[in-house]
């Protein structure tokens, strides 16, 4: 499901980097250590695996309950809904006609998930006869219906339920890192009173939100065909799963649209959206491909979504299974509670991910909205066509969708782009692994919402990448073809995937699936090498905790370079401490462990500066270059190293150029004037906006030096990222004319620029800027508010206390009640900024902490100083 929210996981990234540069910043995996030279002799000190160890902080609660797949008593065969929104009361009036049959055992009772409804009546539907009322009990969560008799597994029956869904009356506090709310049905600006925001109605079904707007068996191992009729105002557009099979005008001035999905899918994938959308039409192989956006974005919709037909063609051919559904639509909605959601035939996106002005489009990298689009589309095969049987098997959905992002980047933009995706996602998993390590397939957990994490997404995708590298491309994609064909339109568990790979390859892959899907953690490798007796002596130690994690079996490629020639060795690591002898006629110029960068591991390889420089000059692609740059950063003052970094500023791949710029941050070597000149040239003339922005950011790291002319020129750059970087730089040392120039940007709606403006005024603002903060704290996007609200607190420290009342009240209200937790955190941090001058606020902050229900947010509060 959904594309994971970037918000919380990026909150603690260094504020000085542009967002895309932050994403490119490498983690430890594959990193090299320049701190110790290559050993002259073999590394022979014995390694003793620990036999006892303290319980690590990442070990999950061992008392969590087992969570088996849901028992299937009834098969949900078909769902027909007749729905009419009540905008003034934010209700949904509905009639649901459900077709069911007992799964195996005879049944006389039906239990449905139905959250927060008013039930008006339930009847058994009989062909050609008047419906028969049925008895039921209802506790606002489960609807228990007594059938008219016992039904056998060969008998279908229909029940009709008249109800009113009242999503706003549901208890609050649900949701997860990926989905911040779980009330299923959302009215946006229902009375039209919010200026600048359209009236919309949309749904979010995963994980159990569908039962907040229609009665169903809300489990992923159910499958149903579906027909939804929506009665709306005539000027509103509708969207649902499947095809629009009829649209009729009614005598009361409304219109009823009927959408029908003819192939079965899981209930959580049902969706609807209603609003004032512009529909931009496209097609693929004669199937409709439509983009639903706000009217203001009709002219940029194809620029954002326009690669969808090519994605459909690429994925269909790569998987050997054509896109299996009747149409594909994508809709952008306001205030979405997730990043995006892969509803069958109709994916939903938060508007901030896909709606951009023409100027903003220049700043949207392929690993931004395009990767989200690829992710949700890949779900149409992995998640919709073949579905995880239980939420514990979530990686069978999410790991594949995550890997779909890499496949698209590789196809469309090349191996360097795929390597960037690989590195970023591995870093995200390793960050989460510092506090949490779980098996990919989880049979015990407290809440299925907990499963939507960097394990199910980023780790799962990296495991698939290793599997592809292990068996080869032909076998990997042939196995996926077999898996999809054998399990189409059904729900599966992990053994089905393993069986497909084993039947294709003829290999027993139990070891791989057990190790990577069923056991927690990852290898932590310490790699050293020496040269003796015409051989490279390579020592690999697995130093991870092996009480709670396994000693891993790791097929790996090691490249040994002699001069300009490399020899690749395929090794298999099976022990906690293992030494290999690799023949070499002369001392190698470079020994590169995990040459292809495929291992899901935290790798610390000891390499000398000379080896790293050789690696940088002979690197095969982005991963090896950026690893060398990271390892050489501490040596950037050396003439050879800084010259190498400057040469990389012309590398064909933009993210490599960003890494080289970061390597020159705060440069103190002999080439100071040359380096600064090069940085200024990049800031002014580089084609890629992220690279220009990074150059400005790096220039600003040189203390007591002024590059005001570069920054002022950048304020009017065509890229918002560059303008934002210039504002950040000027905030540190504003010139006399800076304030007037920055003021010209105040009306912007661009998130990056708004964050930077708030930072500028947080450091340099006066009472004159107070009203700007008050206004922006009302209308800025949630991802902006996290930064803006903390800066609001900083500004208020410099204005008279008598003027602060509105601002304090705004921050407190947002800290207590905003639906998105990272906005609450930003407001909390804003209040915390004021405790030095207003000690009484400490009591308010304590009360906010005590009343906060989200445990993750409470933990974050403890980090706020």
Give a quick set of tags describing it.
23% strand, 29 helices, globular, 865 residues, five-stranded mixed beta sheet, alpha+beta, 30 strands, ARM-like
Give an overview in words.
The structure is a single chain. The chain is an alpha+beta fold and 865 residues long. It contains 29 helices and 30 strands. The protein has an eight-stranded mixed β-sheet, with no helix packed on it. Strands 1-30-24-25-28 form a five-stranded mixed β-sheet. Strands 17-18-19-21-20 form a five-stranded mixed β-sheet. The chain is globular and about 90 Å long.
In short:
GO terms for molecular function: alanyl aminopeptidase activity; metalloaminopeptidase activity; peptide binding; zinc ion binding. It comes from Hymenobacter lapidiphilus. By secondary structure, this protein is α+β, with helices and mostly antiparallel strands.
Shape call? globular
Instruction: Give the assembly state of these chains.
Output: single chain
Instruction: Report strand %.
Output: 15-25%
CATH class of the domain at 386-517: Mainly Alpha
Furnish the topology, listing elements before pairings.
Blueprint: H1 7-10, H2 19-24, E1 32-33, E2 74-86, E3 91-102, E4 107-113, E5 117-126, E6 129-133, E7 135-138, E8 142-151, E9 157-165, E10 185-188, E11 200-203, E12 224-233, E13 237-240, E14 243-249, E15 254-265, E16 272-275, E17 278-284, E18 287-293, H3 301-305, H4 308-319, E19 328-333, E20 340-341, E21 346-350, H5 351-354, H6 358-361, H7 366-379, E22 386-388, H8 395-413, H9 415-433, H10 455-471, H11 473-487, E23 490-492, H12 494-505, H13 510-517, E24 524-532, E25 535-542, E26 554-562, E27 565-573, E28 577-583, E29 590-593, E30 602-606, H14 609-618, H15 622-632, H16 639-648, H17 654-663, H18 672-685, H19 689-699, H20 708-714, H21 720-732, H22 738-743, H23 751-764, H24 770-779, H25 782-796, H26 805-817, H27 821-832, H28 841-851, H29 855-861
Parallel strand pairs: 1-30, 2-12, 18-19, 19-21, 22-23, 24-30
Antiparallel strand pairs: 2-3, 3-9, 4-8, 5-6, 5-9, 7-8, 10-11, 11-16, 12-15, 13-16, 14-15, 17-18, 20-21, 24-25, 25-28, 26-27, 26-29
Helix pairs in contact: 4-7, 7-8, 8-9, 8-10, 9-10, 10-11, 11-12, 14-15, 15-17, 16-17, 17-19, 18-19, 19-21, 20-21, 21-23, 23-25, 24-25, 25-27, 26-27
